[in-house]
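QA checklist item 7 of 12: single-chain prediction sanity check.
[x] sequence parsed
[x] length recorded as 173
[x] structure emitted
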Amino acid sequence: SFLELWPLSTSEEAPATRVLTRVKTNDQIWNKVCDALFAVDSLMQRNKILNSGSKYIKDVFGIKVLTPRRVDSYRVDEILGAIEWQASQLHELGLEHDDGLRTLELIERKDYLSLPQDKKKHTGWEAIKNVYRWGAQLFEVQIQTEANYFLEALHLTDTSHRTFEMQRRQMRR
């Protein structure tokens, strides 16, 4: 359920260095639904910023864009907001020309990079998390620096997703 894309070449001006994607498995989706129904987030006392969008469906498919620096994270955010596909490009992909496919519709935005220190996650995790609609599809895009990604990837650190999943699995039990 994971795919990692590297550029064939890079330059100093490149806003991103890597793109990763993932699709949640059925059991991951089921766990998210159950976690919301049984208020597992409140039991774990997580410093999660709640949102008005769907708690369950919005991040079934996700894209993570890694950037060299924080300023580049904002550049990628701007690039995504300005994307506009031409009818010919949609046709090449076998998609009908539809205004809902011409641009990405921003549904929700969380900017964890610009929060004041007292509002930041206690783990130190930072990213821009956007949920977009493209046609009928919802997906999440996380834009974060490579440094934050590698901190997150280290197993058993506070920012590690694996540590979070282990804590959540224990709470479910």
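[x] summary fact logged: Residues 70-82 form the longest helix (13 residues).
[ ] second reviewer sign-off
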